[in-house]
From TrEMBL:
<dbReference type="InterPro" id="IPR011251">
    <property type="entry name" value="Luciferase-like_dom"/>
</dbReference>
<dbReference type="GO" id="GO:0004497">
    <property type="term" value="F:monooxygenase activity"/>
</dbReference>
<dbReference type="Pfam" id="PF00296">
    <property type="entry name" value="Bac_luciferase"/>
</dbReference>
<keyword id="KW-0560">Oxidoreductase</keyword>
<feature type="domain" description="Luciferase-like">
    <location>
        <begin position="25"/>
        <end position="275"/>
    </location>
</feature>
<dbReference type="InterPro" id="IPR036661">
    <property type="entry name" value="Luciferase-like_sf"/>
</dbReference>
<dbReference type="GO" id="GO:0005829">
    <property type="term" value="C:cytosol"/>
</dbReference>
<dbReference type="InterPro" id="IPR050766">
    <property type="entry name" value="Bact_Lucif_Oxidored"/>
</dbReference>
<dbReference type="GO" id="GO:0016705">
    <property type="term" value="F:oxidoreductase activity, acting on paired donors, with incorporation or reduction of molecular oxygen"/>
</dbReference>
<protein>
    <submittedName>
        <fullName>Flavin-dependent oxidoreductase, luciferase family (Includes alkanesulfonate monooxygenase SsuD and methylene tetrahydromethanopterin reductase)</fullName>
    </submittedName>
</protein>
<keyword id="KW-0503">Monooxygenase</keyword>
Length: 357
């Protein structure tokens, strides 16, 4: 049973931007269970590369991957990004997000520079303080602990500061007067250096205040389907306020370039019997309010339904309208073929009717 595009198309309201980059976001789960087509870590990694290839072929703009430690999910991102870069030529490749509590910022800058050069400058790296963990203070097992009087969030921001600083390519390390190989003059920088990568770093902000901080640091804004605060308004309105505060803070900081803003959404057009079987129960999804990390949090809804229903509902989503990039969260354990179908359905039946394409 195929769906045909409706004649009366809803149009995107001009909140900030309409035409968008549209990519996917995968958490890279694997589980050795009967329903999963991703049984092992090898399956998760190889299928992630294949989905990036498939997404590029059907016209998507980005392949983004979540990073979780101590979990049966994608973790170390740079081998994966480099592998996907070697198999693709156009699509953006990114993370959403790398938990900076776990990172050595200089070693990370080397890995990021190498992967970006392999990609030809297509990396879009989302970084952040991170999310609730699988283990208690997992970053301590990686050799990192907050300094006296600091929180783990403070430590993450300090790691981010150093990372951003070394990505500029300025020399800072005193050269050995008797080096094994000849050095260029002056202080030495992290190599390999990839010009322009500094402008392609995003901060995953869970609140309005952290979005403002990200703008002050000159990072793009990445906002997901979760905000770790709740003011009682619908999720998309709270997120739209977050985006506006980010843009206001960016303008006040006087940065020269135009920032980018992404939001994540779970969107499932029902255009086949299999879609209906898998997602019919999500058609009445609503926002959820929960308790996370010691405070209230608001979780965004899932959008599922026939394309005309989705078009009408998504036209009212103020945060999507305000963003220039939309990341579609995909159920990766359903396999590459089905996830490519979901992405293509959004691109074919929904995006053009909203002016996103």
């Amino acid at each position: 049973m195929a769906w045909r595009t409706p004649r009366n198309a809803a149009r995107c309201r001009p909140v900030h931007t309409c035409v968008k980059k549209i990519g996917f976001l995968s958490f890279g789960h694997w589980s050795d269970t009967p329903y999963s087509q991703v049984r092992t870590a090898s399956d998760a990694l190889l299928q992630s590369v294949e989905l990036a290839v498939a997404a590029e072929e059907i016209g998507a703009d980005g392949a983004y991957f979540r990073v979780h430690h101590f979990a049966r999910q994608l973790a170390s991102p740079f081998p994966l990004l480099a592998a996907a870069a070697a198999r693709t030529s156009r699509i953006e490749l990114g993370t959403a997000v790398i938990d900076m509590r776990y990172e050595n910022p200089l070693y990370m800058a080397e890995d990021a520079g190498a992967a970006d050069l392999i990609s030809g400058g297509r990396l879009q790296l989302g970084i952040s303080r991170g999310s609730p963990e699988q283990v208690i203070d997992g970053y301590r097992y990686f050799g990192y602990a907050p300094a006296e009087g600091q929180s783990d969030a403070d430590m993450a921001r300090e790691h981010a500061r150093v990372f951003l600083e070394v990505l500029t390519g300025e020399g800072f390390a005193q050269p050995n007067p008797r080096p094994m190989f000849p050095n260029p003059p002056g202080l030495l920088r992290i190599e390999p250096h990839s010009p322009g990568l500094r402008d392609r770093i995003w901060w995953g902000a869970g609140t309005r205040a952290t979005a403002e901080w990200a703008a002050e640091q000159g990072m793009n804004l990445m906002s997901s389907t979760l905000l770790t605060e709740d003011t009682g308004v619908p999720f998309h309105q709270l997120q739209a306020e977050q985006i506006q505060r980010f843009r206001d803070a960016w303008a006040a900081a006087g940065h020269e370039r135009e920032p980018r803003v992404s939001v994540s959404r779970s969107i499932f057009p029902i255009v086949s019997d299999l879609d209906r079987q898998l997602f019919w129960h999500e058609r009445a999804s609503t926002d959820q309010v929960g308790y996370l990390d010691g405070g209230n949090a608001r979780f965004g809804r899932t959008y599922a339904g026939e394309p005309d229903k989705l078009i009408a509902e998504l036209a009212e989503d103020e945060a999507i309208a305000a963003a220039d990039t939309l990341l579609l969260t995909v159920p990766n354990q359903l396999g590459v073929e089905y996830n490519a179908h979901v992405i293509e359905s959004v691109l074919k039946y929904v995006a053009p009717e909203l002016g996103w394409r």
